[in-house]
Amino acid sequence: MLKTPRTKLRRVPQRGLHDRATLDALLDEALIGHVAFVTHDGHPAVIPTLIARDGDDLLIHGSSASRTVRALRAGAEACVEVTHVDGIVLARSAFHHSMNYRSAILYGTLQPAADKARALEVFTEKLVPGRWDHVRWPNAKELKATEVLSLPLTEGSAKVRTGPPGEEEEDYALDAWAGVIPITTRRGEPIPDPQLRSGIPVPDHVRSLTAR
Amino acid sequence: MLKTPRTKLRRVPQRGLHDRATLDALLDEALIGHVAFVTHDGHPAVIPTLIARDGDDLLIHGSSASRTVRALRAGAEACVEVTHVDGIVLARSAFHHSMNYRSAILYGTLQPAADKARALEVFTEKLVPGRWDHVRWPNAKELKATEVLSLPLTEGSAKVRTGPPGEEEEDYALDAWAGVIPITTRRGEPIPDPQLRSGIPVPDHVRSLTAR
After folding, report:
1. Quick check: is B159 in a domain?
2. How many whole angstroms separate alpha carbon B31 and alpha carbon B82?
3. How far apart are CA B49 and CA A159, in angstroms?
4. Which of B170, B181, B187, B191 to mutate to test the interface with A (most CBs of A within 10 A)?
5. Do residues B81 and A81 make contact, with C-beta atoms less than 8 angstroms apart?
6. Backbone dihedral region of B55: left (phi > 0), alpha (psi from -120 to 50 degrees) or beta?
7. Is B181 in Cβ contact with A185 (below 8 Å)?
8. Which of A188, B64, B91, B186 has a Cα at 20 to 30 A from A95?
9. Which segments of B15-173 are extended strands (E)?
10. Do B20 and B153 contact (CB within 8 A), yes or no?
11. What residues in A contact B129, CB-CB < 8 Å?
12. Does B148 fall in a domain?
């Protein structure tokens, strides 16, 4: 990843990482990215949206008619942020309470994806691996209604905090319990569509996702 | 909540909500908000940060030296987004795959919080209800190192998707399984600090948080 003045981590720089393996894992685990841009009249905007990494690019998609898609397609610079919250860090002092997290921030300008149909396969497989071969593929009207935009993974950084609290030396003698409450995300039991035709069992590609 | 042209939901407006009860519940459940602003030289920026609602204000905090805190304190307009992912929506068509979610977007300019010490109590209690009375409170040096900024909840909107997939009428006849895979966030068993003094059990305020 390209380091630039704005991706250099000034606050707690020892938590910073610029390697692609860390970044890729972090993006691949995330369903949602937070896409910020500056509106045509100079205001900040940020929206949550499904992300999918495709090799050296991060893909986002949306309705061709959406304001965000139109602004980004017109060349508005983007800042995309992804965060996983892994735990609450309880210190003996209020000041040193913290969170364990893994986050990434990317910068760049998005371009329409070269192969929109393939990109929609990437999104579907991101949501549910193995899904693409079980569903009706997008028709011409649906492809036209969807815009897919691509951000090259060239400028950005990741930041990770793990482990127990850091305290002032004298606070270790206090009576307060200290440690970490881990936070995890789980996929639960599949809920069938009330309109599901009878005789269609939960398929393996859905079952295996919910076992995670 | 004040409706303005930019908080009017243009895409899928039936998912939009402007009532404070919905917004408050959504903010109170979230640990992290995504704070976007325009840098002094016109670039978009977005960072994840702990949020805590205090009545009619949303509080964020950070090091007094951080670039984000300084930009916001200097009057940069902010857009704050909060999102909960509640499920993956599996449709019979690739096009109608979706996510169930609850999100909010707020706009405004932040001000330094009137009572910084009280605000830090609000943050500590947000992370772990009941924690404040068990920890060492911030001293003068720590208070000085921390900036707390406050955003009035005056301009914004919430957007919620729930329930099964919506399909094209003819797709209900397809063989594909359809439905929702729910996603939940869980707090796990507390992990004691390796430097915890012996004889300090997990207190009730920690135990009750992890039962959620």
Report:
1. yes
2. 9
3. 13
4. B181
5. no
6. left
7. no
8. B186
9. 16-17, 32-38, 44-54, 57-63, 77-90, 98-109, 111-112, 146-152, 155-161
10. yes
11. none
12. yes
B150-207 pLDDT, tens digit per residue, is 999 999 999 999 999 999 999 999 999 999 999 999 999 999 999 999 999 999 999 9
| Among candidate residues B49, B53, B60, the one with its CA nearest the CA of residue B25 | B53
Residues of A in contact with B212 (CB under 8 A): none
pLDDT single digits (tens) A68-117: 999 999 999 999 999 999 999 999 999 999 999 999 999 999 999 989 99
For A186, which of B177, B186, B206 is closest by C-beta distance?
Answer: B186
Note whether residue B126 is domain-resident. yes
Extract the tokens encoding B84.
Answer: 């909960």
Nearest CB among A80, A94, A131 relative to B132 is that of: A94
Test the B interface: residue of A7, A31, A51, A95 with most B CBs within 10 Å: A95
Assess if residue B152 is contained within a domain: yes
What's the CATH code of the domain at A62?
2.30.110.10
Whether residues A97 and B131 touch (CB distance < 8 A) is answered with yes
Mean of the pLDDT values across residues B134-154? 96
Strand partners, B184: A186
Q: Which of B85, B97, B186 best probes binding to A when mutated, by most A CB atoms within 10 angstroms? A: B97
What's at A1, amino acid-wise?
A: M
Element (H, E) at A143: helix A140-145
CB contact under 8 A, B34 and A138: no
Cβ <8 Å between B172 and A142: no
What's the mean pLDDT in A128-147? 97
* CA nearest neighbour of A109 among A67, A70, A79: A79
The residue of chain B nearest to residue A209, with distances taken between CA atoms, is B181
Asked if A44 and B91 come within 8 Å (Cβ–Cβ), the reply is no
What does the pLDDT read at residue A140?
A: 96
Q: For residue A66, what are the domain limits?
A: 13-86+101-167
Total domains in the fold of chain B: 1
How far is residue B38 CA from its own chain's centroid? 20
Measured between CA atoms, the residue of chain A closest to residue B170 is: A136
Residue A135 to residue B164, Cβ atoms within 8 A: no
Task: Look up the ipTM and state it.
Answer: 0.94
In three-state secondary structure terms, A8 is coil
In this prediction, residue A1 has a pLDDT band, given cuts at 50, 70 and 90, of: low
The residue whose two tokens read 């994806």 is: A113
Q: How confident is the model at residue B1 (pLDDT cuts 50, 70, 90)?
A: low
